[in-house]
Design goal:
Elements lengths: L1 H20 L9 H5 L11 E15 L3 E14 L9 E9 L2 E2 L1 E13 L2 E6 L5 E5 L4 E7 L8 E10 L8 E2 L6 E11 L2 E8 L6 E17 L11 E22 L17 E9 L7 E2 L4 H9 L5 H4 L6 H8 L5 H15 L1 E2 L11 H7 L1 E2 L1 H14 L4 E6 L17 E8 L2 E5 L19 E5 L5 E5 L6 E11 L5 E9 L1 H11 L3 H11 L4 E8 L8 E9 L4 E3 L2 E4 L21 E2 L4 E10 L4 E5 L4 E4 L5 E10 L2 E10 L3 E2 L4 H15 L3 E5 L1
Parallel strand pairs: 1-11, 17-18, 24-31
Antiparallel strand pairs: 1-2, 2-9, 3-4, 3-8, 5-6, 5-9, 7-8, 10-15, 11-14, 12-15, 13-14, 15-16, 19-20, 19-22, 20-21, 22-23, 24-25, 25-27, 26-27, 28-29, 29-37, 30-36, 31-35, 32-37, 33-34, 34-35
């Protein structure tokens, strides 16, 4: 009986291995794939990965040692024109001096049905592009040819990289579904990786070990019988065997992960695996540590000439800063003057990075630089002014959250300066940001401050104070349903950044969109106070005329007193949500509205007042409306007091928004006297 059990187990295990190893042959496209009209598991999908393959391994090069090899093969079904976007792919490549990543072995085809026959179109040179992004980054991209609704595209390529520590994340989920996925990670015994999964899907794997061989060829001098003759050199070969560990991942019918409102980078929640190199240990050589803890990460970044080295440079700005600070009487004034000076002197070239590209001196001279050049320069100037300032590393919202000590997880640097016992955060790359009011792209959990002594500490990036919007409106309602009045909006902090970014330098476009978004109302006398005075709230005021602002039916008027200011749709539609709701920063809004009613009408019904609070006072809503003679007075307040609301509160938040929006859209009913 035991023998039979062993045999059955062996057969099942063998079948399992066969399934894991089985691959889809490149170029073998079936008519069934071309005829498929929609994904049976997700009929809303505009495209589907029919097959997705990725293998990462290490190959020994006799001249340069181990290289990182990433093989990619993908087959995609295009259902609609909206799916054409998936026929374009961009591959970012890093290069430092002569060490550059490159793409090899590219092949790509588009397949269509023509009179029942499978017709293939090969991508040509005109479909491939190479773009230089910065001094160290380039981009290979391609667009597949002859696209039609119903096409199947397939391509494969190999990325060869000398940077053995930079293993790209294995991504197992996209915003379109995947029918079948195979992935392999092959690591030599000399490499030790820290492996972490991400996302909310179950990821299973199996491992096996294989023996690999490295062959070395060397010249050996051959002894001669005569002392005068040096002999003839001959070549000898030697071999070294080593063990590689292969980890296989296989998934089928992977659901799409689509964008949801208020998500801090949907990529943070995609199913996948991260491999970060901890150390290497080659025969007869000491262990080489990579980033394994925060002190090691901090040291490796700070010691780079294009990071820590840039902070030491001062000569290029000394005269200008001396003149700037000659009359400054306090640390607060010094911070403000230096901050405003850098913002005016050097503009951001919209290139990200924690390291300087061309250097702070050149950026200062040319008046333009990347993130690091602008904010490392700011930090150096603050230090020169006698302030305790340090760079703060962070990862932008789109770049993800560095949960473990990692150099690659950070792609941005700002400045933090000690003032009155607290850290004030500064980013001079944003035209409208102010101290402790950072650009939205940077609001991503925590950053890490690097101090002069080599130590580091976490720094919270989310603001503690609510950004506010206050709206004051006085309007008159006529019998024919026209509303005419005055409106004033006051924006503070991040809400002021949003307004200024939309309005400053775009006046005409802003007004056109404002009129269109509010029922084609007419706007006159539009004025803005403190347009560029960032130390004050931005204030927008205007007169408006809105025809057919209410419903007039059967001699009655049905009026939504919030008019065009109300929210009409609940952004939270999922039954359940597995990832946090990220508002980015806490907010408060307050609406104070007075409406003069038409002569000859009386109030037949008013909405009931409402007051509600989210658990743990994370949010609060209040709605109150009163009738004073021929005037309606409305006061609506809403506050979301936390930038992040965790998934266990999602049901409460969804219900909160549902009730709030229902109340905002309730109507006052007026009838003739």
């Amino acid at each position: 009986m035991k023998n039979i059990t062993k045999i059955i187990f062996a057969i099942v295990f063998s079948m399992s291995l066969s399934t894991w190893a089985q691959e889809v042959k490149f170029g073998k496209i079936s008519k069934e794939e071309l005829l498929e009209k929609f994904n049976p598991e997700d009929s809303a999908a505009v495209a589907t990965y029919l097959y997705k393959y990725r293998k990462t391994s290490f190959q020994y090069n006799k001249l340069s040692g181990f290289q990182l090899i990433t093989e990619v093969r993908e087959r995609i079904k295009i259902y609609t024109k909206d799916g054409f976007d998936y026929a374009t792919k961009k591959i970012r490549l890093f290069g430092d001096g002569s060490d550059k990543e490159k793409v090899n072995g590219f092949k790509g085809f588009t397949y269509n049905l023509d009179n029942g026959k499978v017709v293939e179109t090969k991508i040509g040179k005109d479909g491939r592009f190479n773009t230089v992004l910065s001094e160290n980054w380039s981009q290979e991209s391609f667009t597949m040819p002859n696209l039609k609704e119903g096409s199947v595209i397939e391509y494969k390529y190999k990325i060869v990289s000398p940077y053995i520590s930079n293993v790209d994340e294995f991504v197992f989920q996209h915003d379109i579904p995947i029918k079948r996925l195979n992935a392999v990670m092959s690591a030599p015994e000399y490499f030790n990786f820290r492996v972490s999964g991400k996302g909310f899907l179950d990821i299973t794997s199996r491992t096996e070990r294989k023996t690999n061989t490295i062959t070395f060829t060397q010249k050996v001098a051959q002894q001669s019988g005569s002392a005068l003759s040096p002999g003839v050199a001959r070549r000898e070969q030697s071999t070294v065997d080593y063990i590689s560990t292969l980890t296989y991942y296989q998934m089928t019918n992977v659901p799409a992960l689509r964008e949801e409102p208020f998500v801090n980078g949907i990529d943070n929640y995609r199913a996948g695996m991260k491999y970060e190199l901890s150390y290497t240990k080659f025969p007869d050589t000491p262990i080489k540590q990579y980033a394994t803890d925060w002190p090691a990460v901090v040291k490796s970044i700070y010691d780079r000439p294009n990071f820590g080295g840039e902070l030491k440079k001062q000569g290029y700005f000394e005269k200008d800063v001396d003149a700037l600070l000659s009359s400054a009487s306090s640390d607060s004034e010094k911070i403000g003057r230096v901050y405003r000076f850098v913002k005016a002197k050097v503009k951001w070239n919209e290139s990200y990075g924690k390291y300087a590209d061309k250097g702070v001196k050149k950026a200062y001279k040319e008046g333009i630089g990347n993130i690091a050049e602008v904010n490392l320069m700011l930090t150096a100037m603050l230090r020169y002014a006698g302030l305790e300032a340090n760079p703060v590393l962070l990862s932008t919202r789109k770049n993800g959250v560095p949960l473990f000590p990692t150099r690659e997880g950070y792609n941005y640097v700002i400045s933090g300066v000690l003032f009155n016992g607290e850290i004030v955060l500064l980013d001079a790359t944003s035209a409208f940001s102010t101290p402790n009011v950072l650009p939205f792209r940077t609001l991503n959990w925590v950053g890490r401050m690097i101090k002069k002594d080599g130590s580091s500490a976490e720094v919270g990036l989310y603001p503690k104070k609510n950004s506010t919007t206050k709206v004051f409106m006085n309007t008159t309602l006529t019998e024919d349903g026209t509303m005419e009045g005055k409106l004033r909006k006051v924006y503070s902090d991040h809400n002021a950044i949003t307004f200024r970014s939309s309005y400053v330098g775009k006046h005409d476009t802003y007004l056109e969109e404002l009129e269109q978004d509010n029922g084609d109302m007419e706007i006159e006398n539009f004025t803005v106070q403190n347009e560029t005075d960032l130390g004050k709230s931005a204030i927008a005021s205007y007169d408006f005329l809105l025809e057919e602002a209410v419903d007039v039916i059967g001699g009655k008027i049905y009026l939504s007193p919030l008019l065009f200011l109300r929210t009409s749709e609940n952004p939270f539609k999922l039954e359940n949500r597995e990832f946090p709701v990220d508002f980015g920063y806490p907010t408060s809004s307050n609406y104070i509205i007075s409406i003069k009613l038409p002569e000859g009408y009386q109030i037949e019904s008013l909405p009931e007042p409402l007051s509600m609070v989210l658990p743990d006072t994370m949010g609060k809503f209040k709605y109150a409306i009163m009738n004073k003679g021929n005037m309606l007075q409305l006061n609506v307040a809403n506050a979301i007091n936390e930038p992040i609301i965790l998934p266990n509160y999602y049901s409460a938040l969804k219900e909160y928004f549902k009730k709030m929006i229902e109340k905002m859209n309730e109507k006052v009913v007026l009838s003739k006297v």
